[in-house]
Amino acid sequence: MAFLTGEYCHAIDSKGRLTIPAKLRESINAAEEGFGFIAVAMFDKVLYLYTPNEYRLISPKLAPRLEANADVRKFKRLRYGMAEHVEVDGLGRILIPDRFLKRCSLTKDVALVGCEDHIEVWDRARWDAFSDENVPQQDELAARVMALVNDGAAPAAPAPQAAAKT
Fold this sequence. Notes:
The chain is α+β, with helices and mostly antiparallel strands. It has one domain: Chemotaxis protein chec. Strands 1-7-8-4-3-5 form a six-stranded antiparallel β-sheet. The protein has a two-stranded antiparallel ribbon with strand order 2-6. The longest helix is centred in the last third of the chain and has 14 residues. It is globular and about 45 Å long.
C-alpha cells in the first residue's frame, strides 16, 4: 500500500489534464497497486484518486441479499457508477473528465494533497480556505480523532465561538 503525503499546487491545463507530482507517483508501486488511478467524487466536493488496488481494499463488501435495500442500491450506483479509471500518461498526467471538474468545482488552480491511502484534488481557493480555518484547530482536531480511534466515539466538536465584541 502506498503511503501518500504532502501538499502540491498545480494547474489543470485547457484540455483537462493534471500532472501528478513526481513525489506522489514515486510513492506508488504500480506493479503492486495497479496502473493509473480510480477517480471518484467523494466527500466535501473533493476529487479522490485511489490506486486500483486500494480502491478495491476500501470498498465495502456488500452481500447480494442487501440489493433489496434501496439505500444499498443508491450507494453502489453512486460509489461505483460515478468512479472512473484514469490513466497516467508518459508525462505523469491524468485527464480529469469534465463531470469531475464540475462535481468538484475544480478550476484551473488546484491543490493535490496526499492523504495516506489516496490523493485528494481540491480547488486551490477551497483548499486554502480549508487550511486557514482548520490549521489553528489542529490540536483539538487531533484529540477528537484520537478519542475516536481509541474509544470508538469522538467527543463532539466544540461549538464555534462568537466573535468578541470590542
